[in-house]
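Structure representation.

___
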Amino acid sequence: MINTEQLQHEFYLVSIIARVRVAEKIDDLFHRKGTSGATAYLAACFDEDDRSSLLEMQGERKEVLMKATHRDNLEKVINHILDRYPSVENGENFLLVSPLSGLSGLSGYDGVEGNAAYEKVEDTLPAPYRLVTIICNRGEGEDYIDATQRQDILQHILIRGHGTAEMSNEYSGTIVQPEKDIVMQIVHSDDVLDIKEFIDAYEGIQFNEAGAIGFTRDILYLHRF
């Protein structure tokens, strides 16, 4: 369990990557426990040993739940999951905790307004894992996952999205926007630089002229179940 006394940020993002029915039960659990629900995204996920699915890009359908919470409520939110879903070695479902900065403007949301979240904060708790995120054009996410399957990545998450940049146009009253892929990968912190070097090299070869963006965030706590 994460030691909340070591946490310096005011707000944290709890992300849960789970099979669809499990994710639905967890979202319902949050509601019943009075800690509000979460935002859900449908994704295709590939485990580190899921070679056959990677080759055909037919990953297991999972949902990604995201829930922002105050530091004082973090332990309670995590315990909702731990009490129902104990740790399983190499479990296919994940719970991630990452620090948040700049959370504001949410009137009536547990006193979020007027918080100090924009102040520079450095957690004393080391981050054992990182979440690498790549946003690229449709189809390039699949190529990127296939190319990185030999890296030390615990989970690949592929989400379909769309962009709102200058390529968006309106045709007959319908807004047409460029389709995007969002790839998220759970990586050991020690391996993040290897992934970055790979992304830099891969971008020069594979990503088209529109390019892609990659960024990481700390995972201070990881629970597999």
User: Anything to note?
Assistant: The mean pLDDT is 81. DSSP finds five helices and eleven strands in the chain. The radius of gyration is 18 Å.
